[in-house]
Amino acid sequence: MSLPPIAKIEAIARAAGDAILAIYQQAFTVEYKADESPLTAADKGAHDVIVAGLASLTPDIPVLSEESGEEVLQARLGWQRYWLVDPLDGTKEFVSRNGEFTVNIALVEGGRPVWGMVYAPVLDKLWYGGKRLGAFCSEGGVSRPIQTRPHQEGTPWRVVGSRNHLSQETLDFLAPLGEIDLVSMGSSLKFCIIAEGGAELYPRLAPTCEWDTGAAQAVLEGAGGSVTRLDGSPLEYNKPDILNPWFVARA
Question: Which residues bind Mg(2+) 1 (predicted)?
Answer without folding.
Answer: 66, 86, 88-89, 212
